[in-house]
Amino acid sequence: MHTITAAATRTTAWRWPVILLGISGLRLDRGTRYRPARLLLFVLTAALYYLLTPVLTTPAVATAYAATVWLLYYGGLSLTLGGPGRTALIARFGEDRAYALYEVALGVLFMNQGFAQAVVIYAYGDSLPAAVPSWAAYAAGAALMAVGTFYKLWAARTAGLDTYYCRDMFMGRPIGDASELVVAGPYRHLRNPMYGAGNLHAYGWALWSHSLEGLAVAAAFQLGIYLFYHLCERPFIERAYVRK
């Protein structure tokens, strides 16, 4: 998501809490029809996480859970947006309903992505080499969490939550005014701030928790999103926006 349309820069007026909830898996900016169902699913999923935390934070289960989420998230997203998944959904339900279903499913995966990294960090805390001073891990971790969270929110606000949820890719065409591509906000000086600097918070959390395995999982999830970008998203951008 390193490029955005002119319409996105004009219409992005989300409040920061709405953006934060949106990138966490709960969209409150999309009408009212599906809002109660989204909110209920979000609350029930969060409650389930809480109840299962004692099990999920054991090292073996945390590792298996993170691997499963990685496969479901990046594999499912690639098959849906880069394969026959979206066309099958649209043929079955129509564009609007199909996108609503996809959007809810993707929101659940967003939640699981964050929680999977959290349980690995918790399960493998205090595993950094003893040579790394605690003060350095805390300082670097706090800085990375602050920078990463700032860039993730800034990029999501600039591009819009529809872009964050890959709505144009799901529809198979540019949404809104696609007459030109513009660079704004963090995209003015970073090609892909959402996937790059926006993921620094995961490394920061791992450092703060002194988790070597947490750093590895953060890297694995960032690698996954870049694979998705190069294999699915970038070809779509070049086809739909760049090539006239």
From TrEMBL:
It is found in: Endomembrane system. It is a multi-pass membrane protein. GO terms for cellular component: endomembrane system. Keywords: Membrane, Transmembrane, Transmembrane helix. The keyword Methyltransferase does not apply. Gene3D superfamilies: 1.20.120.1630. The keyword Transport does not apply. It holds the Pfam family PEMT. The chain crosses the membrane at residues 37-56, 62-81, 101-123, 135-154. This is Phospholipid methyltransferase. It comes from [Actinomadura] parvosata subsp. kistnae. The lineage of its organism: Bacteria, Bacillati, Actinomycetota, Actinomycetes, Streptosporangiales.
